[in-house]
User: Fold Nicotinate phosphoribosyltransferase from Leucobacter denitrificans.
Amino acid sequence: MHISTALLTDHYELTMVDAALKAGTADRRSMFELFARRLSGARRYGVVAGTGRLLEAIQQFRFTDAELDFLREQQVVSASTIEWLADYRFSGEIWGYPEGEVFFPGSPLLTVEGSFAEGVILETLALSIMNYDSAVATAASRMVYAANGKPLAEMGSRRTAERSAVAAARAAYIAGFSATSNLEAGRSYGIPTMGTAAHSFTLLHDSEREAFEAQIAAFGTDTTLLIDTYDIEQGVRTAIDVAGTELGAVRIDSGDLTVVAAEVRALLDSLGATNTRITVTNDLDEHTVAALAASPVDSFGVGTSVVIGSGSPTMGMVYKLVARENDEGEWVSVAKKSTDKASVGGRKSVRRLLNSRGVARSELIFLGDGPGGTPEGTDVAETSRQVLEQFVDGGSVAQRFTGTEGIALARERHRASIAELPAVAMSLTRGDPAITTEYR
Amino acid sequence: MHISTALLTDHYELTMVDAALKAGTADRRSMFELFARRLSGARRYGVVAGTGRLLEAIQQFRFTDAELDFLREQQVVSASTIEWLADYRFSGEIWGYPEGEVFFPGSPLLTVEGSFAEGVILETLALSIMNYDSAVATAASRMVYAANGKPLAEMGSRRTAERSAVAAARAAYIAGFSATSNLEAGRSYGIPTMGTAAHSFTLLHDSEREAFEAQIAAFGTDTTLLIDTYDIEQGVRTAIDVAGTELGAVRIDSGDLTVVAAEVRALLDSLGATNTRITVTNDLDEHTVAALAASPVDSFGVGTSVVIGSGSPTMGMVYKLVARENDEGEWVSVAKKSTDKASVGGRKSVRRLLNSRGVARSELIFLGDGPGGTPEGTDVAETSRQVLEQFVDGGSVAQRFTGTEGIALARERHRASIAELPAVAMSLTRGDPAITTEYR
Assistant:
């Protein structure tokens, strides 16, 4: 496993740099924009995630001898370009939607300004991270809403590739999950980790009772016993018999959870274990979580569906050159002409328009202003707030957006951003974005 | 980025080890099986991938001070378990379906035999890798069939998380793709990489002609020009005007590819560029590739759909304790009793039954035999072949299944394995597995 992120890149990014260096166009000041043309899965809003990871990855985007040797041997680029890559450090500016913020079609999630070569080379890495992490966060956010205040744990590591699992845990946490099963996410990002036992632990022992006794001996009674390996009713009785009525929780991983949870609650109560909580974990998604809202379930463990974006495992974001300087040093909007992939060129700033009650009404994208600019002449009596923030200034990454500080900030921002959305945003059905995107 | 894979693990794997060590049950000889209850997406066959990566990851599964410090600080396990983890080396046996092999519901893709503790701790990592890589390979294999001999390049790095992208390139290559855009896959696994330019390269320049001239100057005429940034007909004319009739290829990334490819082929021919190839890359999947079979397309670039398993981004494989020794040292089959998640316990060996023409008829799973055993009394006049291979013996990994050698072997095996399947296996519609799984 190489630490450098520089080869997590499509071959053509480097051949473009190579050809542009030879043509003398590589240094043209350019602006790339990362955005989604639509919301995957006809969701009502998207959730930005991955920004902090991307900023960390950009700091590791270095062509050391190991990378350069490969590129030289495979003749991916010419010798002069190898030299250029050896010195590569992103030296430009990056603005964008801060992590945790909600977004809509066309939202300029990242604006990368620098030379063509230094900007284009980040395309693949930026899209890989943002597309996956945002897909997970977008799904996770809906689940958090569906859970109606009850805590959710992310447990999907086994259903996505091993390093994606860590990213997924992070994205779900930003979107409001309380914990993860993934230990690397605990180490790398400080996310609370949790878990007790699987069915194999029960099957290892000569009886369910012996398994429960072993677990209680190791962790005390404030643990979660998995009670559905054999017969659920007997499992509950054995659990309380072994742990007493102070047992922390029972976990149910099979069956019709609405029915079973009610039966287990009644049984626990009848045994005097009125404080013992119920957690459920059987192939949940936002719809099944919502359906369990009225049942006596205390917490949810969500696996597969959150790490695969609940049916939309990637956001479909793209990274496009939207403007560049011409020979006179003036910015020129550029756009591909193909009708089915039209993108809106030029430099942009963004404000979220809110009504007098603080409810989001629309996303205002001001063309022509640089990111972070304060457009004048907005014809609104209503309030609006600035959306873009600057992540990188002259190549220097603002560290508050990275690491555990960045995650804490993103989690808080997500909460605030969701609270602004109109009620329709929380619909789990497919439909139009919750607010419109307007270009001004 | 930590090199150790040990924390790419669910919290509960370690708490189970902790409790089992305390209870004196951790050393019970156990057999875990990794299998899929059904084929995701109602596919006709699955393709095993990830095995080589898993074997490499198991060799990196070490709890160094960095991992142990985290576990100690977070009190994930007790001090005595920390000591056990510090010495952890998998010392058991692993048998399974070799990479590239096709599989069916119930196929024992991995059989992990060792102490309970040393086997259970690999659960999350094994599932993460196998579920993702196999999902990609299963989708990729269908695309290869749909392409009917024309080459496919994997270009989906931007639509899956950055390290998954490398795994996806590897899995697609095993399933028969010819190349990838992902440079890290080229470095790590020796997979051919390819790519030339994106629309941004054309937009960087003052005209399409200048962009084409820059690319030809850098790479000669045997390159691929992207001709749909503005007007496709004009793009083709400019391409041939700049490169001459020896231009290697043109790439089309938008529009109705069936119509456009035919028009571009006719135009190229009319301009004398009869050897210039056409490659297409616009949101392809196995269905659109199949639909283009009769069109004058020479090669395909597939992005999103292959890296997200074309609608089935994870295989739904599970890792279950199927047998363990009792206090008398006898193997005992174990199985969870819950009706909706029944698994077939015990030790197994597998043969693929073929008819007299060498066409696969069914997957025979022999219960009770150890993996690799040669069951007797098979009542078939037909032929059959052994499926399982041994990957790990006494903790030692058979290196031929890893690295570039393992990939080459897997790619060849996939070709041979696919060639055995009945015609129905190649149906792109949803349906039953191509052959039945029979327990004997």
User: Anything to note?
Assistant: Chain B touches chain A through 107 residues (CB under 8 Å). Confidence is low (pLDDT under 50) at residues 338-342 of chain B. Residues 11-136+312-347+386-439 of chain B form a domain with the nicotinate phosphoribosyltransferase fold (CATH 3.20.140.10).
